[in-house]
């Protein structure tokens, strides 16, 4: 071992457990359940999964793969191509794996990201045979120091029969000290989680495990995969302006002040762009309590707008990754990284009163939101943490462009084709057309606001026509059930949701 490698394993006995990725992969057998580190492409294990895929070429086998969230380094692509996954949870965002899921070649459990921990702890998910966790170092007492995500790593490591650690020399050792690892007791025997402010630290700096359970240590030297978000465009900038207008109104009405409330922003280009829009705003001394930190958070830190950011992973574009991790001293005292059970915990989210911004694929005239299923059947990525936040936040805001696929899809439809967030969990919806504040409104009060403020002009008349016909049928939440999915049906048959007069009678 080199000196650098020796420095990263303080425990003398554990130095003898350094193995090749191939050897570690040879311990994994058919039918086992693996708990892999990794959350939205950050801090994922990068060597053993590749060795596993190579092994599968010689003799096929299937494993269950549990993670924090999506993986980088094309691991999900390779797993899907090799056909070695029986069941995957709780989130993925890989186009190849998406195809396998939608073709029925593997099972995918789309789970609230705060729920996996409770299910594993209570034994519902069965035993974890191997936790495979990326680390910057292993301490004298066996404590594992994670890298750029915690996700479910601490949960897997403390509940697995065996642990394999991948020490990644490409990750800065300065990450040590930003983590805050804490596991609540079992349900029924648990006190309050003592996070009262976004910046409170309540746990340890690493994952405390019995060193005897660390069966092997592998060295790697590969950076995280950069995020795939696209930079803010004209439309997302306009959406950000609408959101800022809404927040300014809340301040005028005395419900918020210029420091707002701890912010959560979901994955994806749209949520990133909206947060980015705060750079030139008057808001200041902001705090973030979120799961993933994307580029915009670091732009806001650089601009002096954000004082503190709590997260469970950091996922950055290539350029931003070099800047942030190349100058990590500048950022580390502003960052806290926790397990996803804590970053997404309903108790903490409700206590802190978060402003939560997530992205919808589509929403309907009453405010139900679909974040996951294209046309009601095909999985996109998964619900991720959006449900954890939406149900419990002070303000649950959903953003989306009003149209997709060159205008052939309206993101506002009569009835969402799959419900992730019910009308009861959604406070404000925002598109580039404007926003609708749905709080305190009855279903029939929401519709005019949504149609007039959020819908693209190409679809306004068509949506009014649906609603007026529905009103004739009456009810608390008027619908024409036989036409509720007619827009999706029209899309499947004609490649567009735009209907002509023969299909829908415009009144
Ligand atoms: N029907 C079909 N496709 C749609 C659509 C709709 N109503 N609305 C958007 N899309 C497509 C876009 O065309 C785009 O397709 P492409 O990849 O082929 O270009 C894709 O969905 C992504 O949309 P985009 O507008 O680029 O938004 P995004 O990158 O912000 O992603 C989600 C949007 C909803 C897919 C993403 O935010 C997500 O998976 N959310 C669920 C999980 C979540 O919210 N987690 C939050 C806590 S981390």
Automatic annotation (TrEMBL):
The keyword Transmembrane appears for this protein: no
Acetyl-CoA hydrolase/transferase N-terminal domain: residues covered: 14-217
Acetyl-CoA hydrolase/transferase C-terminal domain sequence ranges: 325-465
Keyword annotations: Hydrolase, Transferase
Single GO molecular function: acetyl-CoA hydrolase activity
Active site feature: 291
InterPro entries: AcetylCoA_hyd_C, AcetylCoA_hyd_C_sf, ActCoA_hydro, ActCoA_hydro_N, NagB/RpiA_transferase-like, Succinate_CoA_transferase
Keyword rRNA-binding attributed: no
GO biological process, one term: acetyl-CoA metabolic process
Residues holding CoA: 266-270, 381, 385, 405
Pfam family, one: AcetylCoA_hyd_C
Annotated family: Belongs to the acetyl-CoA hydrolase/transferase family.
Classification via NCBIfam families: YgfH_subfam (TIGR03458)
Protein known as: Acetyl-CoA hydrolase/transferase family protein
């Amino acid at each position: 071992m080199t000196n650098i490698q020796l420095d990263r394993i303080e425990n003398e006995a554990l130095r003898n457990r350094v193995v090749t990725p191939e050897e570690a992969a040879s311990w994994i057998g058919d039918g086992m359940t693996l708990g892999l580190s990794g959350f939205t492409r950050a801090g994922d294990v990068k060597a053993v999964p590749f060795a596993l895929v190579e092994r599968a070429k010689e003799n096929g086998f299937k494993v269950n793969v549990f993670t924090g969230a999506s993986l980088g380094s094309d691991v999900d692509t390779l797993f899907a191509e090799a056909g070695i996954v029986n069941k995957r949870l709780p989130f993925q965002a890989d186009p190849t794996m998406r195809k396998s899921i939608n073709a029925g070649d593997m099972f995918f459990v789309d789970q609230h990201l705060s729920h996996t921990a409770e299910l594993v702890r209570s034994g519902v998910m069965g035993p974890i045979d191997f936790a495979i966790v990326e680390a910057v170092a292993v301490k004298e007492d066996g404590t594992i120091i994670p890298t750029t995500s915690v996700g479910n790593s601490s949960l897997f490591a403390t509940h697995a029969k065996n642990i394999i650690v991948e020490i990644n020399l490409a990750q800065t050792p300065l990450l040590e000290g930003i983590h805050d690892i804490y596991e609540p007791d079992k349900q029924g025997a648990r006190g309050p989680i003592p996070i009262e402010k976004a910046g409170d630290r309540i746990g340890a700096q690493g994952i405390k495990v019995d060193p005897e359970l660390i069966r092997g240590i592998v060295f790697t030297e590969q950076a995280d995969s950069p995020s795939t978000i696209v930079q803010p465009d004209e439309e997302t900038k306009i959406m950000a302006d609408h959101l800022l207008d809404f927040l300014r109104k809340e301040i005028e009405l005395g419900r918020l002040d210029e420091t707002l409330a701890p912010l959560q922003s979901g994955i994806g280009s749209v949520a990133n762009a909206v947060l980015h829009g705060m750079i030139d705003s008057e808001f200041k001394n902001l705090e973030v309590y979120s799961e993933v930190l994307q580029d915009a958070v670091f732009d806001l830190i650089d601009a002096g707008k954000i004082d503190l950011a709590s997260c469970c992973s950091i996922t950055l574009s290539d350029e931003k990754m070099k800047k942030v991790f190349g100058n990590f001293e500048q950022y580390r005292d502003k960052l806290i990284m926790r397990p996803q059970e804590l970053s997404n915990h309903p108790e903490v989210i409700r206590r802190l009163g978060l402003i939560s911004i997530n992205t919808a694929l589509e929403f309907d005239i009453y405010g139900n939101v679909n974040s996951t299923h294209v046309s009601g059947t095909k999985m996109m990525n998964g619900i991720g943490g959006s449900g954890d936040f939406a149900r419990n936040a002070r303000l649950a805001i959903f953003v989306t462009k009003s149209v997709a696929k060159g205008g052939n899809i309206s993101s506002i439809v009569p009835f969402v084709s799959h419900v992730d967030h019910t009308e009861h969990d959604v406070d404000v919806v925002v598109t580039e057309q404007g926003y609708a504040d749905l709080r305190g409104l009855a279903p029939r009060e929401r519709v005019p606001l949504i149609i007039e403020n959020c819908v693209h002009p190409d679809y306004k008349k068509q949506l009014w026509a649906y609603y007026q016909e529905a009103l004739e049928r009456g009810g608390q939440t008027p619908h024409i059930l036989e036409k509720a999915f007619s827009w999706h049906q029209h899309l499947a048959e004609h490649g567009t949701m735009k209907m002509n007069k023969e299909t829908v009678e415009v009144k």
